[in-house]
Design a protein that fits this description.
Elements: E1 10-14, E2 31-41, E3 45-48, E4 60-62, E5 66-68
Antiparallel strand pairs: 1-2, 1-5, 2-3, 3-4
């Protein structure tokens, strides 16, 4: 079933066919966006303006690779806390631990 979308809707795009995203495939985001739909091409494709990092991709995608984007606001989730502090810095020991036993010699 195709999503019910129209022009000026915000959507997320599947990264299934993206080769220019960084990192291992299983660690990448499944969808990127949100993007605003500029033009509907029939019932099967949508066109929108991509961000700079995806500028090498054509701006037309199949509707099967698109899903609606729903913005979550503070009014919907008032108890959700926003983190404003940076993560804690973990200090690493200066001296490495000594090797106790070599299990398998290198090749």
């Amino acid at each position: 079933m195709e999503p019910d979308i129209k022009e000026v809707d915000h959507v997320l795009v599947s990264t299934l066919n993206f080769n220019n995203t960084k990192g291992p495939k299983r660690m990448r985001d499944s969808f990127v966006g949100p993007f605003t739909i500029i033009y509907l091409i029939g019932n099967n494709a949508v066109e929108f303006r991509l961000m700079k990092e995806f500028s090498m991709k054509p701006p037309v995608f199949s509707v099967s690779l698109v899903k609606p984007y729903f913005q979550t606001g503070e009014d919907k989730f008032p108890s959700r806390k926003k983190s404003t502090t940076p993560p804690d810095i973990v200090e690493v020991e200066d001296s490495p631990r000594p090797v106790r036993k070599i299990i398998r010699p290198g090749r």
